[in-house]
Amino acid sequence: MSDRLPTGSARTDDATTDVATDGGTRTDDATTDAAADGDAVTAVDPDALLRVEDLRTVFYTEHEEIHAVDGVSFDVHEGETVGLVGESGSGKSVTARSILGLVDEPGRIEEGAIYYRGEDLTDDNWDAHRGDIAIVFQDPGGSLNPVYTVGNQIREALRIHQGLRGSEARERAVDLLEDVGIPDARRRVDEYPHQLSGGMQQRAVIAMALACDPDLLVCDEPTTALDVTIQAQILDLLAELQREENLAILFITHDMGVIEDATDRVNVIYAGEVVERAPTEALFEDPAHPYTRALLQSIPGRTPPDEQLPTIEGEVPTPTGPATDCRFAPRCPAAFDACTTFHPRHQSLDADGTDRTAACLLHDDTHDRTPAEAFDGTDGFVQSDGFGESGDGPHHTGPHADGGDRS
Questions:
Q1: Which residue from 101, 124, 130, 111 is spatially nearest to 54, judged by alpha carbons?
Q2: Domain ends where: 173, 191, 213?
Q3: What is the DSSP letter of 243?
Q4: pTM recorded for the entire structure
Q5: For residue 141, what pLDDT is reported?
Q6: What does the pLDDT read at residue 194?
Q7: Which residues pair with 81 in a beta bridge?
Q8: How many angstroms separate the CA atoms of 199 and 202, rounded?
Q9: Tell me: the pLDDT tens digits for 296-313?
Q10: Distance between CA 138 and CA 141 in Å, rounded?
Q11: 206 part of a folded domain
């Protein structure tokens, strides 16, 4: 397409407005309108520390366009932890990189806005806020330079973001290592990454992020490469740092157990789209979207010990164009015929506001199937009257985190 934008840019023409207000259109009537999906309810708080609005990040390969992030909207307030959860390949990490302006070619932000304290970062404002937003990546070994000491790498961040040098920077680096729970920090500050365990490497990466003195910390699967004991310690550390520094945290993971322990609110993402938003407690008590329900089924301990852990066949699809139907429908135990014809938009599930929304036709009054007909009153599903009996599509009974590495 001839009007592609540079990496980190966003459209500001009337197309953005059209995208934000349309949705739920039949594909056989107006495919282009159906593709330009948006939310039926307000998705973000204008006073939030971070506001992501209708973000669309596309990768242009030789053979296809991959819409890795396709209309994502959410917000994060000061001092709270917001989760972004979904299988591998759902678009979680691309969302994180988009927020920090780290999308490399052949990818680029094509539409939407990312507001930090009311300033749109996509308007070439990332450099002005590099120290305000920091990120902790999944693999600490890949975040640390093996030829420099841990202290040297922390001091570099202190020099760039706080102007500290020499002995002052060294002492502050020692303090940061102590703050993240690394024992004998004065000795460890002169050690190389390979001399630290995996858990200590991740603590050192968190110390580097804190050296920027951020208001928002983006944690992209920070515990995935760690064993369960160290994972719990890192989660406790992040919670303690949040209380002490009033940090806002965007926590990205595929682990629903971590989401339950670590977050205040949750955004469930599938194939580049947020499909459900809810306070964490409410989401775990009463999941509204079939995908969320399926993810919760996959948590060990929620299934009786004499029953097999539910799985879902297949994997997260690669979105090679704008959505014109429900992308989860081929794997959805509750799918019915309309799911292949309409692209669902977010519906409010909260009578007194928009704190809970779900993008599912089960919650759209214009369709005749309801959650009560699809869900069995526990964590399971009732047999679908659409795909389940007509044979128009597959019918499965649970989740399996089995996507490609496109998260």
A1: 111
A2: 213
A3: H
A4: 0.81
A5: 85
A6: 95
A7: 249
A8: 5
A9: 988 887 778 888 888 777
A10: 9
A11: yes
